Amino acid sequence: MSAKRQIRFNAFTMNTVGHQAPGLWAHPRDQMHRYRQLSYWTELARLLERGLFDGIFLADVLGIYDVYGASHDAALHHAVQVPSNDPLLIIPAMAAVTEHLGFGTTFSLTYEHPYPFARRMSTLDHLTEGRVGWNIVTGYLDSAAKNLGMAKQMAHDDRYDMADEYLDVVYKLWELSWEDAAIERNKATRRFTNPLRVHGIGHEGVHFSVPGIHLCEPSPQRTPVLYQAGASSRGRLFSGRHAECVFMCMPTAQLLKRSVDDFHAALAECGREKSDALVYGQALIITGESRAKAEEKLAEYRHYLDLDASLALLSGWTGVDFAKFDLDATVEYIENDAGRTALASFSKADPSRTWTVRAAAEFIALGGRGPVLSGSVADVCDQLVSWFEATGIDGFNLAFAVANETFEDVVNLVVPELQRQGRYRSAYQPGTLREKLFGRGPRLPANHRARQLVL
């Protein structure tokens, strides 16, 4: 009998008060008010490593949700991902108190030149001893573009065209600028670096000009593990070319399977193998010692949900001002330059259900656009296995309702049961994040675009 496929977990959070459970920051047991304290993040990192999570995935937006009511008032009032701190700066502290946990951090390439960013990620890869990843995003908020001197954000597909060149620049810096033997550290000869083995990348493109060398010596992985969540047709092509880990948010297993199949097709189109990338589906787990306890907890959480906050979040994701619509109006697909898939997943993409504005807002109010898996530990494990097998995903990107109660329930209750069923690992693989995820060397494989570029 062949061994069962094992489920993977990532923790999905953000360096802010309220992530994807609008209103739950007011729950008396919620700890996200401590997001400004390093002790909060180090406690979370230790918890997740005890649960053998692949990593902690840090979301980020460089901007504010000001689409709803054409104002940022609702976002500020309800702490809808604001105030928000930089996700990169908390990683070294979490790395210092863990040995294996990975750190995937979101960074929008639209608003910063690739040269300083490449140094920042190499620094993090050094400080974490090869446990850092980059969630590649192009942004979706006009508010971010305006605060950086632009009239509005670039058109959706144009952002991806620029992103392809951005990736080429950082790949050249990370992979090609410094040869493996460039660093000598020879105190006897007093030569630290052999200049003949360090090369300017000479990049001249449509968007960027970078003639010189990378400022950092090669880090353990050189290129960080590459995460991506784009699900539009242009986003899938980008993911197929670059991504090693893909996050997907879909309200039904059928939609998630379709997205997984589309991504695997994009991989093949780009000359890559299915095994070259892992797919994580977003979900929220609410469980307890019994089914009754879980139902009580779910009802308690729902008491703190806020429809106005949910609509502010949904409006920001989609670029559609839902303050203009009646709550019982049907959600329609509207083409725009914000998050296309966020809106499509509630309308034409799921013809089996009529989604109203109210229904969509209530759905995302707990855990975003993924499913809520609730019940006893046995119930939740059955649901996890069902989604896992039906969709072809490799694991789950777990959102939370109450910090850090949700993750404590997963680590203390769900993980042991999945291990008992042979569905979850009992120890980490050694090595860098890429080695832990894929069981191969710390570098990108030879068929990845980054390894095919030349100077």
Defining traits:
single chain; alpha/beta; TIM Barrel; 8-stranded parallel beta barrel; 37% helix
Extended strand count: 13
The strand line-up of the biggest sheet is 1-2-3-4-9-10-11-13
Q: Percent range for helical residues?
A: 25-40%
Say what the CATH topology is.
TIM Barrel
Structural class: alpha/beta
Identify the CATH class. Alpha Beta
CATH superfamily: Luciferase-like domain
Mean pLDDT: 92
Poorly predicted regions are none
Give the CA-CA distance, first to last residue: 49 Å
Radius of gyration: 22 Å
- In N-to-C order, the SSE pattern is EHEHHEHEHHEEEEEHEHEHHHHEHEHH
Largest sheet, described in full?
A: 8 strands, parallel, barrel
Architecture in CATH?
A: Alpha-Beta Barrel
Strand content: 5-15%
Overall number of structural domains: 1
How many H/I helices?
Answer: 15
- The best one-word shape is globular
The gist of it:
With 455 residues, this protein is an alpha/beta fold.
Structure report:
The chain contains 15 helices and 13 strands. With 455 residues, the chain is an alpha/beta fold. The protein has a single domain, classed as TIM Barrel (Alpha-Beta Barrel). The strands form 3 sheets. It has an 8-stranded parallel beta barrel with strand order 1-2-3-4-9-10-11-13, surrounded by 6 helices. Strands 5-6 form a two-stranded antiparallel ribbon. A two-stranded antiparallel ribbon has the order 7-8. Helix 4 crosses helix 6, helix 7 packs across helix 8 and helix 10 packs across helix 12. The mean pLDDT is 92.
